[in-house]
């Protein structure tokens, strides 16, 4: 109901914006070829100052993501589009993040890219930024408001569904599996599990022995799997939904001297290396760290007057036996506890923005 | 009569001086930071810039007051954060319903008073340590907030958001009003009792201070203040979030301690506590405008806090030497 109301509202807004653009084009005689993106007023000129409002900088995934952002900014500096990058870290506190985004507005940055610490708390400050003509691009953890230039993310439901389908294919629709989830109550973990459910329902031959909920780290996952191995003589597959959970599972099987079983996972370097080393049947996808770089690129494109989609859905890159070697060949460039993300370049970004 | 009046004045000022001792360093540090902030961001001196800054500081200032109120009489609360969340979700779920904004405000205030008083009664009557009671309370309150509103959402009327957290200095006005109320409260027997109970509970009891009633009142008022912060945060963000308050617990203690409020009660002032919270808040903005990287910010934050506490201590030691 609320969702519907929101959607109607945004529809309305788009219509109004459309009408305004038409009026502008008619009045000016010859307007720009493409309509400007949301929030953009056209009064900001390159080189731009970009603000990166991080919610928490400590986890490895975040550090790697920030790496792609700074690399992209360096790239854009060379072409004279960006002059400065301001980085804040709210240390997990949504209230601090509001304050820092307010400071970015006060400092009159041209673009703000943000991973939200709360889906609702940032709504007003982000709308304020949008009203000031600042390009706001939100990725990974999204906000509720539509007063942004663009939102960028992968589809967590699809993640769960694709992983479950692969497992069904591997086991021929029959067997006993264990499902490994991230922490309970985290929306990403929730959404991935929900996405897997319809596939599991359609294949009643696949029996779920039990499920685990742990932090997305290898150690707690290994501990949980070790005790499950003692209790269950027959396990045919491990449907693990993210982080380094799969690495923990593979290590538990190895320590107990049990034969490896088909295992899904994420692009954690540890898991990919174990996958190759133990020769197991594996499948993995990822939340690409370059979503950060894409967010910067999108903001600058919007500021340059290009139209960008309000929602950029990034397809999940898949790692399987045919592609794993290309990932492991680059393993040295990534931290040992990090994530080996797929390659990206400007052409890929342009393709994603042309949706 | 003249002499009696004079000595009363002297007593007042000597007490105030004693309470201010050690805070001059903090005042100077906060003053320098505000000056730096105004130089880096001249918009701070405009109505809109001033309003936005004080709005972001306001919730921290209030929870620090709520914490200091307890610490002054020897208590402490680890339930500040969850109670902020509870206030926020009650506001966000009631204001759009039949109760309306006024009813929502009353519901938030009533729940804060009730929760605070309940904790106070348990601490005062059962003689249990406040730290344990509020730790347990924090889980219960946090759980209730999650039951009321499992995911961020709810509704706050736009006019309320714009009134409290728009482009006017309403939040700052409320803070001044609260400080005036605090001064008035301190002039009442119950208010005087807050310091007395914290400083020397046995002495206070023998002098006829209703120790238990003072403790319960302190917890109830602190709960009221904390829940109202939740209402403000909900208005500021335009919605309720069941875990938004969590970091306030530690920050409220940090602000109070930074402001010279002692853990053992009876020591410290409300103005010190408010200055402490102001330092925590302005620090974030100054470091942003100076362009510190996040890693540097972690280090700088620690150094600033350490300096604000250590400098007055060191200067007082030096000045005592012949």
Beta-strand content estimate of chain B: under 5%
H/I helix tally of chain B: 14
CATH class of the largest domain in chain A: Alpha Beta
CATH topology of the largest domain in chain A: Rossmann fold
CATH-defined fold name of chain B: ABC transporter involved in vitamin B12 uptake, BtuC
| Arithmetic mean of pLDDT of chain A | 87
Structural class of chain A: alpha/beta
GO cellular component, one term (chain A): cell envelope
Subcellular location (chain A): Cell envelope
GO molecular function, one term (chain A): carbohydrate binding
Family (chain A): Belongs to the bacterial solute-binding protein 2 family.
List the SSEs and their pairings:
The complex is a heterodimer of chains A (355) and B (322).
Chain A: H1 2-28, E1 48-54, H2 60-78, E2 82-89, H3 94-106, E3 111-114, H4 123-131, E4 135-139, E5 150-153, H5 156-171, E6 175-181, H6 187-202, E7 206-213, H7 218-231, E8 237-240, H8 245-255, E9 263-266, H9 269-278, E10 282-285, H10 291-303, E11 311-313, H11 324-328, H12 346-353
Parallel strand pairs in A: 1-2, 1-3, 3-4, 4-5, 5-11, 6-7, 6-8, 9-10
Helix pairs in contact in A: 2-10, 3-4, 5-6, 7-8, 8-9
Chain B: H1 2-20, H2 24-40, H3 47-72, H4 80-94, H5 100-126, H6 130-148, H7 158-165, H8 170-186, H9 189-199, H10 201-206, H11 211-237, H12 248-258, H13 270-289, H14 294-320
Helix pairs in contact in B: 2-13, 2-14, 3-8, 3-11, 3-12, 3-13, 4-5, 4-6, 4-11, 4-12, 5-6, 5-11, 7-11, 8-9, 9-11, 12-13, 13-14
């Amino acid at each position: 109901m609320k969702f519907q109301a929101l959607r109607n509202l945004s529809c309305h807004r788009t219509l109004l914006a459309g009408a305004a653009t038409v009026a502008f084009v008619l009045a000016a005689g010859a307007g720009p070829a493409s309509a400007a993106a949301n929030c953009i007023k056209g009064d900001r000129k390159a080189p731009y100052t970009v603000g990166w409002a991080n919610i928490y900088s400590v986890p490895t995934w975040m550090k790697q993501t920030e790496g792609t952002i700074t690399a992209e900014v360096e790239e854009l500096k060379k072409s004279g589009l960006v002059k400065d990058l301001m980085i804040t870290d709210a240390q997990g506190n949504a209230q601090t993040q509001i304050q820092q985004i307010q400071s970015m507005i006060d400092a009159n940055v041209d673009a703000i890219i943000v991973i939200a610490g709360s889906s609702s708390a940032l709504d007003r400050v982000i709308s304020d930024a949008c009203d000031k003509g600042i390009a706001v691009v939100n990725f990974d953890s999204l906000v509720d408001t539509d007063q942004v230039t663009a939102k960028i993310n992968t589809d967590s439901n699809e993640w769960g569904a694709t992983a479950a389908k692969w497992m069904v294919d591997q086991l021929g629709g029959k067997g006993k599996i264990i499902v490994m989830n991230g922490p309970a109550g985290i929306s990403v973990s929730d959404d991935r599990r929900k996405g897997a459910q319809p596939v599991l329902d359609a294949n009643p031959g696949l029996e779920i022995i039990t499920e685990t909920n742990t932090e997305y780290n290898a150690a707690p996952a290994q501990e949980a799997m070790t005790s499950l191995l003692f209790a269950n003589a027959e396990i045919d597959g491990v449907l693990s939904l993210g982080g380094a959970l799969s690495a923990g599972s593979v290590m538990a099987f190895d320590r107990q001297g049990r034969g490896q079983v088909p295992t899904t996972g994420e692009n954690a370097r540890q898991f990919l290396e174990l996958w190759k080393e133990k020769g197991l049947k594996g499948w993995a996808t990822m939340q690409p760290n370059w979503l950060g770089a894409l967010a910067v690129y999108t903001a600058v494109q919007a500021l340059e007057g290009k139209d960008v989609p309000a929602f950029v859905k990034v397809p999940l890159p898949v790692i399987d036996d045919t592609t794993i070697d290309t990932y492991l060949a680059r393993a040295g460039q990534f931290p040992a506890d990090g994530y080996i993300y797929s390659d990206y370049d400007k052409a890929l970004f342009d393709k994603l923005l042309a949706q | 009569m003249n002499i009696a009046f004079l000595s009363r004045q002297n007593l007042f000022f000597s007490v105030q001086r004693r309470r201010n001792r050690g805070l001059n360093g903090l005042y100077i540090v906060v003053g320098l930071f505000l000056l730096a902030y105004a130089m880096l961001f001249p918009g701070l001196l405009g109505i809109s810039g001033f309003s936005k800054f004080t709005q972001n500081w306001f919730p921290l200032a209030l929870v620090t007051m709520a914490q200091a109120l307890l610490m002054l009489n020897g208590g402490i609360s680890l339930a500040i954060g969850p109670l902020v969340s509870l206030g926020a979700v009650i506001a966000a779920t009631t204001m759009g319903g039949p109760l309306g904004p006024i009813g929502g405000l009353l519901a938030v205030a009533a729940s804060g008073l009730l929760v605070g008083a309940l904790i106070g009664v348990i601490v005062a009557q059962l003689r249990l340590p406040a730290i344990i009671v509020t730790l347990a309370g924090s889980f219960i309150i946090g759980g209730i907030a999650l039951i009321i509103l499992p995911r961020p959402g709810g509704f706050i009327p736009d006019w309320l958001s714009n009134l409290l957290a728009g482009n006017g200095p309403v939040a700052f006005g409320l803070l001044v009003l609260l400080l005036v109320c605090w001064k008035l409260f301190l002039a009442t027997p119950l208010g005087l009792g807050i310091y007395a109970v914290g400083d020397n509970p046995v002495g206070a009891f023998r002098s006829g201070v209703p120790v238990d009633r003072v403790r319960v009142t302190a917890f109830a008022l602190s709960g009221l203040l904390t829940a109202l912060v939740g209402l403000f945060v909900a208005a500021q963000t335009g919605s309720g979030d069941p875990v938004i308050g969590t970091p306030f617990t530690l920050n409220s203690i940090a602000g109070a301690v930074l402001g010279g409020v002692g853990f053992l009660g009876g020591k410290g002032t409300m103005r010190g506590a408010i200055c402490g919270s102001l330092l925590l808040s302005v620090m974030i903005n100054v470091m942003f405008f100076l362009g510190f990287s996040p890693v540097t910010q972690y280090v700088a934050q620690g150094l600033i806090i350490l300096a604000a506490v250590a400098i007055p201590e060191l200067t007082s030691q030096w000045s005592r030497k012949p």
